């Protein structure tokens, strides 16, 4: 965990997740295919897991507590049952982002140098789908810290295209004023 803190401290500015490979595509797929209750088709869930594995080395499933098989055969009054239950509660409590709303999650992850905001400041819709993995990686529990020097060529291309269009629009306004 100490190594993760040193590595995170060495990151000069927060990693703009929208610029990381496939995060824009994940955002687009989520916004296109999520139901009003947040359910996703299997293909989108698999894509999210792939992006998570590529970026953080883990998926959301990897951050969940694994109950041992024996747990399900134990009676509730057994001491072993209560020990395992306590471990589960402590495991989930470690992830601060689990109990935060999306705005609080974005701010907390920003303090860990992960920026899950759009250029206009809005939280990314997929923030909660990646929050536990990002938190685990940046706090040194598991996974890997994303390479902050690698950004998606597609994202840069889109940003440059938007900047060019903005510049042209400005020029047109000046020309016709």
Explain what you see.
The structure is a single chain. By secondary structure, this protein is an all-alpha fold. It has helices at 2-10, 23-33, 42-56, 79-94, 102-111, 127-138, 153-176; strands at 15-16, 114-115. Helix 2 runs antiparallel to helix 3 (42-56) and helix 5 runs parallel beside helix 6. The model has no long low-confidence stretch (mean pLDDT 89).
* Tally of distinct domains: 1
How are the strands ordered across the major sheet?
1-2
The secondary-structure element order is HEHHHHEHH
- Helices and strands: which structural class? mainly alpha
Tell me the Rg in angstroms.
20 Å
Tally of helical runs: 7
Helices and strands in order:
Blueprint: H1 2-10, E1 15-16, H2 23-33, H3 42-56, H4 79-94, H5 102-111, E2 114-115, H6 127-138, H7 153-176
Parallel strand pairs: 1-2
Helix pairs in contact: 2-3, 5-6
């Amino acid at each position: 965990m100490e190594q993760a803190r040193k590595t995170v401290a060495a990151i000069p500015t927060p990693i703009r997740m929208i610029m990381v490979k496939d995060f824009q595509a994940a955002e687009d797929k989520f916004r296109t295919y999520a139901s009003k209750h947040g359910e996703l088709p299997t293909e989108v869930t698999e894509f999210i897991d792939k992006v998570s594995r590529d970026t953080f080395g883990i998926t959301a499933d990897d951050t969940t507590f694994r109950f041992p098989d024996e747990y399900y055969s134990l009676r509730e009054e057994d001491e072993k049952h209560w020990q395992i239950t306590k471990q589960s509660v402590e495991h989930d409590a470690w992830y601060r982002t689990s109990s935060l709303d999306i705005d609080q999650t974005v701010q907390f992850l920003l303090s860990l140098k992960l920026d899950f905001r759009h250029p206009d400041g809005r939280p990314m819709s997929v923030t909660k789908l990646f929050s536990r993995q990002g938190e685990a990686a940046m706090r040194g529990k598991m996974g890997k810290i994303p390479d902050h020097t690698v950004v998606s060529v597609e994202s840069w291309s889109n940003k440059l295209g938007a900047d060019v269009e903005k510049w042209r629009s400005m020029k047109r306004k000046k020309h016709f004023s």
